[in-house]
């Protein structure tokens, strides 16, 4: 029988007792739990690629980072994946797809090998962070808009980039969104993180101070959960409301994850 245990007071659950991930009733319960709790942890499932994909497809449509490819390898070893250099950016707090019109709905991440030291994944609920703001602070942020860029995220990794790096980053699209995003069901969250370049129309120093203040608020301990991976674990999270980041580990370690991104159906506003 499916059972759940809270991972943190404000979000996240560990799911146990799942006999069949392909059961419609199980899918319905997990989808509802993901919507309101934000992070689902399954310990020791040991799913192979086929089973992970089958489950992901029940949640929605997997994004294809390359034509015909629905599952991505996450490793810092360039011999394992061509995305190794880009993945260094995942050590900074971020929300995926903030530079796209429609953000990813969710991510399904499974662990194949762990790092000997480090390599956990930390989550922070931007829904809980917003809901716990004083009313005066909520009003302060109404109507503010943020420009998100790939460049802003990469500068957290490369603070002194080359002209070539900057040119490559600026070739990618930027996107403007509300600082406070309202989901179609009315729930609100903060759209912050490494991609948040600046608040539109605000002086640069004031903009940076406000974005840093909000990120510090969102990532305080009471809104966070840190997952220490074991081989065979799978974690699913609501991408629209979870800041996340990888904790440092040796790039030469065998840490290997398989990631599936579920396409969204609700645009940033």
List its salient traits.
269 residues; seven-stranded mixed β-sheet; three-stranded antiparallel β-sheet; 7 helices; 25% helix; 25% strand
How would you briefly describe this protein structure?
Helix content is 25%, strand content 25%. The chain is of the alpha+beta class and 269 residues long.
Note down, in words, how this protein is organized.
The protein has 269 residues and is α+β, with helices and mostly antiparallel strands. Helix content is 25%, strand content 25%. A seven-stranded mixed beta sheet has the order 1-2-3-13-5-15-4, covered by helices on one side. It has a three-stranded antiparallel beta sheet with strand order 12-6-14. Strand 1 (3-6) and strand 2 form a beta hairpin. The longest helix is centred in the C-terminal third of the chain and has 15 residues, at 204-218. The protein is globular and about 55 Å long. The mean pLDDT is 95.
Q: Helix and strand layout, with pairings?
A:
Layout lengths: L2 E4 L6 E4 L7 H14 L1 E4 L6 H11 L12 E3 L31 E8 L7 E5 H6 L3 H7 L3 E4 L1 H6 L7 H8 L4 E4 L1 E3 L5 E3 L5 E4 L4 H15 L5 E4 L6 E5 L3 E5 L9 E7 L7
Parallel strand pairs: 2-3
Antiparallel strand pairs: 1-2, 3-13, 4-15, 5-13, 5-15, 6-12, 6-14, 7-8, 7-11, 9-10
Specify the biggest β-sheet: 7 strands, mixed
**Unreliable stretches:** none
Helix content range of the residues, please? 10-25%
Percent of residues in beta strands:
15-25%
Return the string of H and E elements.
EEHEHEEEHHEHHEEEEHEEEE
Structural class, from helix and strand content?
Answer: alpha+beta
Could you give the count of β-strands? 15
Rg, nearest Å: 18 Å
Put simply, the count of helices is 7
The side-by-side strand order for the widest beta sheet comes to 1-2-3-13-5-15-4
Rounded mean pLDDT score: 95
Shape: globular
Distance between the termini: 39 Å
